[in-house]
Design a protein that fits this description.
The complex is a heterodimer of chains A (about 400) and B (about 1050). By secondary structure, chain A is α/β, with parallel strands linked by helices. Helix content of chain A is about 20%, strand content about 30%. In chain A, strands 10, 11, 12, 13, 14, 15, 16, 17, 18, 19 and 20 form an 11-stranded mixed β-sheet that branches. A 7-stranded mixed β-barrel of chain A has the order 1-2-8-6-4-3-9. In chain A, strands 5-7 form a two-stranded parallel sheet. The two termini of chain B are about 30 Å apart. Classes of the chains: A alpha/beta (about 400), B alpha/beta (about 1050). Chains A and B meet through helix 3 and strand 15 of A and helix 9 and helix 16 of B.
Chain lengths: ~400, ~1050
Amino acid sequence: MSDATAYVLLEDGARFDGLACGADGHAVGEVVFTTGMTGYQETVTDPSFAGQLIAFTTAHVGNYGVSAEAMESDRIHARAAIMRAATNREDAPGAEGGWLDWLADCGVPGITDLDTRALVRHIRDAGAMRGGVFPVALGEDEARVLIDAEPPMDGRDLARDVTPTEPVVLEPLGNRGATPAPLTIAMLDTGVKDSIVRNLRERGATVELHPCTSSADQLLARDADAFFLANGPGDPAALQYVVETVRGLVGKKPVYGICLGHQLLCRAVGLETYKLPFGHRGANHPVKDLTTGRVEITSQNHGFAVLGPGGARTIDDDRPVRWETDFGAAELTHINLYDRTVEGLALRDVPGATVQYHPEAGPGPHDALHLFDRFIEEIRQSRIGHGRPDADSPHQNAGLDAPRS
Amino acid sequence: MPKRTDIRKILIIGSGPIVIGQAAEFDYSGTQACKVLMEEGYEVVLVNSNPATIMTDPEIATATYVEPLLPGPVAQVIERERPDALLPTLGGQTALNLAKALHEDGTLEQFGVELIGADYEAIDRAEDRDRFRETMAEAGLRVPRSAIATTVEQARAAMEEIGLPLILRPAFTLGGRGGGVARSAAELDEIAARGIAASPIGQILIDESVLGWGEFELEVMRDRADNVVIVCSIENLDPMGVHTGDSVCVAPQQTLTDKQYQALRDQAIKVIRAVGVETGGSNVQFAVNPQTDEIVVIEMNPRVSRSSALASKATGFPIAKIAARLAVGYTLQEIPNDITRATPASFEPTVDYCVVKWPRFAFEKFPGSDAGLTTHMKSVGEAMAIGRTFKQAFAKALRSRELDARPCPPAGDDELLDACELAGPERFDHVLEALRRGRAVEELHVRTRIDPWFLGELAELALEPEAAEAGERTFKAVDTCAAEFAARTPYYYSARERRAEHEVERGERPSVVILGAGPNRIGQGIEFDYCCVHAAMTVRASGRDAVMVNCNPETVSTDYDTSDRLYFEPLTLEDVLGVCELERPEGVIVQFGGQTPLKLAAGLAQAGVPILGTSIDAIDLAEDRGRFGALLARLGYEAPPYATAHSPEEALARAPEVGFPLLVRPSYVLGGRAMEIVYSQEGLEDYLRRVGADHGSGKEIFLDRFLEDSIEVDVDALCDGEQVWIGGIMQHVEEAGIHSGDSACVLPPHSLGDEVLAQIRSHTEGIATALGVRGLINVQYAVDRAGRLYVIEANPRASRTVPFVSKAIGIPLAKLACRIALGERIAHFALPADPVGDVVCVKEAVLPFDRFAGADSLLGPEMRSTGEVMGIAHDFPTAFAKAEAAAGAQLPDEGTVFLTVTDRDKPAAAGVAMALHELGFRIVATAGTAQAIKRMGIPVQSLRKIGEGSPNVLELIERGDVRLVVNTPVGTGARVDGWEIRSAAVASGIPCITTMTGAMAAARAIAAARRGEPPVFSLQELHREHGAERPGAERAASNAA
């Protein structure tokens, strides 16, 4: 093997050598791994990876190049890519560029030819931790200083880094539902993936993306049909200001959340979150939908989770157990069959539901795409419940048709 | 949903003999399923005609029927056993077709047997091309444009409409038998005619060509609650146009984007739901146009398959085991993942390595056949390699093939590129060579349509072959989850990394390494895997850790349940030493995996690894002709005269002293490769010209006197160095000159006298003790017309017949041999003096001539069979009839028989004709043969020779007027007399017997069949019946439990 030109150093001193690729220089942050076998470009552009260095367990990365259609946001959010065997392949069918060229152009360092399995086994046993990718020219002592300077993920607000500065309004992309009634969803954008927005728009919804610093009053003033809490990076416990905002929304309109949004809604109604040892990142986690009994293979990307009733980290059987929240009962709707952690719940006394996993896939399996249909249907139902029948809604919604991007 | 309690007894149908397209993978799947259902408390009734399987070991099922896989015998089993359910999805196409037949003829309904796993409708929707297309269209899925034809004219019309090239496949055949790619109208006519003939319903499907598109397979599982998971994706390196069984494949897929892959995943789920496979695994094949993202569904198999076995081994997710549990009502969530034990089976495995599968071909055994690869599967085995990267896996796969001869790419660059373009058995060797010579990836992509990513990786491998082996060898685990969870299952492969970080948990117990047989090939098949599995069971039972090394994904030996630790590695000295270095085993067992491990024995011993059982010196003593000849001389045993020559000139000079006819062969071959009988100096010259050109000079040439008209005998025996115990003496049905692997054989011998048998026993004892065998020995003899006994050869290792003998006598020879190798003595086993009961067992070979159009179907000294079946009855003719029926050559009960034999065989032909005439058959023969028959007063019609006008025999065969052909040839070599007749018979599926002893046995069998369907019985009954005392068996079985 060629002599090492770069290495990964973890805060506990573990070191893994490889070859530098992508951009020059170093990167530090939390080192996590994903077990997904497809969709490297979607992965690194997912804003939830902000502040993190991603180790890909799949052996080969870069095989089909990169293309515009695989973007989950406007840029790479991961701080580095750690790989066993990376290739550039700008000539792949459908490729608009090579993977490694693109990493370099985006200023993101990579490391390849590294024993990712040894790294993953280390993280699995020791937990996710801070670390960095460094060129060999940069010595371990210096690297340690850089790692120590990086704040730990616990208590970290990274949503502010990825949220839009101004509200953005996005038109529907056609209507896959039966009723062509326009619907508006106000999204509290803590780093939303394009796939979530696209899935809502494809189902006839206008989606407004709001900065995560927006207040409840500002959001309520939009008179949207529902609120959506996005995925995003960092520790939900550090986003107390968002939690406060969400508290102001619950009960007023239906509120839905995915991933970080799920954790924020749960915290807003009084539930607790905790950090998982090394998180769930991949595309093969089985999640049971307790409302249908179906097991769905899901896309996952989170390092924190919601505690079950009574503060339990796991839930022993497949029953829809309940929590008492500040807004009435909440009922478990989804459970992870790998480690029996909470994957989703529904508020029973006010409209709202959340899932921890990623029904929008991108990358990953499409088993749970139907969840968007369920959300949309509930929003429509709740609108009927609020005396706003669909029939003549275009006019009633006119006031919301403000700026469009 | 818990398991079903309304069913108690389940019938499982195996896949029968190993044939191309249906091989050892069904032993792996079937064994897993039987074991799981037994563990779940069900009674399992198994029907499988293949004795060489672990599946048919008596302890695997409640009742095991080694009977022909035909509706009649299976209906008898159903009537006797009254199973509640039939699980048809584990025995390949054979079991599905049989289940369909039993449904259609009302047997299942009559006896109240429920089809579980896949019901009749689902099987029919997947298997009937027309219904499959409709089903796909209803599900909104695209399939290639196509037409169905039952005549060549209809096929022509379809060509006008769809255009060329077209893919033609017969309905309801294994591995696309009889199909092909038509690029011209002439090709279309030929393939259509062949395909219509090959289809049991006389139907072919004609498809729009998607040649050059990427070919992908997804392994899908569904449970009763409609949960679906994808176990594995497999990508073929060879683009569409080459049967997936003949393609080099990689898992997981490497070239699709997430969007493309998820589209395939969505479609695969739609397919399994639309076809309606209620529970279990299915395989869905797709073609993907990488430029346009177009996807078409090619086919789906509503059952476990070769690909599912590959997917199981590639991921660690045991598809058949889980399919069996799903069939009895569990859901995926209720089944634990064996490997993590902490997580359920309702997930999708993720892998952090690369798996490459290589097919193993045998074209050299079928001269005259076309070695081009098409949609018609031709490979006889496969090797799988696991590497950390594609390059590592590919390099390992190259080694795992164990080729007899190095591929020789054409010297000229143009010829080389042509060879790359033509899909053939050595295509990737040629591609590597072209890349080595500096041809560009783009150029090769244009020529071959192989995805540029693969070509790019191959180019690196070609230019820097050592790079794939750089770094330190480190053993990593196959764990289904890319290390996300701790693995409990010890399934390992070697990777190359910067730093070794072994994941093997070796423990403190002593270990014994068992070397497997590598990829299946003709001459080294499933029988050896059976022996290796028995060795592993025995080592475990002895309190040691059994460590398996093998690279064949089809087998039971590479099931991680079989051993304490499985190393999925090539069987080369370096790779095996790598395992030994880590394991530090008590010793290595080399006598069960055929020639492959035997060849490594000396190198291992040299490196200081102890060889258990028979010593290296004893192996050499048996294999070295000079030393063995001297040993026989010392013992005073007769052997045919022989000589060893080092050049063609020397061979010609020494031939007269050995005497004609001569059996001649190169020194280094297996399974009688390139072995021929020559009758004269001219014949020898011709042989040396043909074979010498292939094999170069300097190699040894072996000459042996061929004992014409003698009877061949095979003996399997145990020896502990001092004591010898004879397990079985088998008499070949075909006379000497037919390779023992291709000859039917009978246990006990049906026509040998007590005196000869006694001599065979004492010779076997003498040879085994003189060699100092510790374990198994196989000795081959010939008995000439005067009753003189000659020793042909002795092999101090497990032979091909070990499983057959073990099943016939109810005593597991391989297990006992392994116990001897571990230090036990025969005296401990309390074995009966004569283990043979009152049944007659016949082993018959199954030949793949129907796959190799153009090759002669003549039997000879070169082995060409792929598998075997067993017939058990209380008399020889009935057992033979059962074996023939099981082998697929069902003998006719009436009609016309055609005979054409050599002058030497004419007296015997008259005897056969007499027997058949008395059975009411009409006899037709060529002039000379007819004359000999007429002289005996038997009515016979004389036919013209081919080329002498009508009516000739070819017309009769093609018209279906002839039901049985008896043809003995003159001379040997390519395309000898009678070739057209035999080819026509093979093409028409008519039994063609090429020896007079075989013909006489057939006549007797037909007579026996007249007495009605022979009764069926289970091995368990037989073993109870004919041996109250089975001490060896019981002890070994209880130890293993």
